[in-house]
Amino acid sequence: MSKPESLLIVQLALGLGAVVTAVCLVAWALAPLAGPAVLGLWGVGLALIGGISWAWARRLHRSLAAIEAQLHAARTGVAAYAIAQNDEGAFSALHNELHHYVRQTAALRADLQRDRDQLSMAITDIAHQLRTPIATQANLIELLDAANAAQTRAELVRQNTRLAHLVEQLILLARVDTHTLSQTQAPIAVDTLLRQSLAPLVPLVAARDVTLAWHVPADLQVGVNAKLTQEALINLFKNTLEHAPEGSTVTVTATGTPLSVVVTLTNTGAPIPAADLPHLFERFYRGSQSAPGNVGIGLAIAQGIIAASDGRLTLVNVAEGVQARVEWFQ
After folding, report:
1. Domain-located, residue 140
2. pTM
3. Which residues sit opposite 266 in a β-bridge?
4. CA distances from 273 to 118, 131, 183, 321 (A)
5. Between these two residues, 220 and 126, which has the higher pLDDT value?
6. Sign of the dihedral through C-alpha 50, 52, 56, 58
7. Could you write out the DSSP letters of every residue in 113-165?
8. Could you tell me the residue range of the domain that residue 55 belongs to?
């Protein structure tokens, strides 16, 4: 009863005891012959006041101890919900609010740990991906002489271009992971968006002798960040073309509904192995059908960019071959 939260209960009990004592004294003065009965009532009254006050203080301390225990458990990473405390009253509401706070704190702690793990993994992966072109350039420089100057210079330019592209892709991937992509969006014709995305890959289309079956309405529009979305579509076109058989047809379609705009890229290549399907959008994952030199970040970047623009990307096996499906919800 020495805790500050018990002070009001003690003061109330003393006040009630004083009132009962005063009433009993007045009754005794008015009816001296009833002294024994008044004394008994006085004792019963004080006992009731003391018992009720003690039970009240004990319940108060028990509720506060439970909340203290929950906070202590939360500090050690335990966010269990004590259903026994979910009764009526102010402490129940406090307990429920505290439980929600603890759960949110635990979720934030888990997100922080996941971000730390991802950052550590990303640094390791980036170092690994950059090591190869840097080592290649160092070897070329070491072997450089007058006899192979032209050939070595051309190879150095190629490696430097590859390194610059890789750095740009890694920076873009970092922006995807940290959710710092630009959210600026504007309407653009889907046909224009797809053609601009395909333009850098025209040499690849020609090299593989691929025919494009184009089914994109000229008046269909979508609201996205055009520059970022082109980065995603370039990766999807590149993936689709690299896995299309030489001399085959790649079908590009776009449709619009009141709910969404859907774009599909379909080739007639071999189906994606079942073992690779769950990992297609993981960073630095290279499936059994990956093209030489593929570092495994193109699909991860594409998914992050499309998700940031209220879209969804899926890659599935279909009857014709393999289909990449992008859906932007309006």
Report:
1. yes
2. 0.59
3. 251, 323
4. 26, 30, 35, 12
5. 220
6. positive
7. HHHHHHHHHHHHHHHHHHHHHHHHHHHHHHH--STTHHHHHHHHHHHHHHHHH
8. 4-78
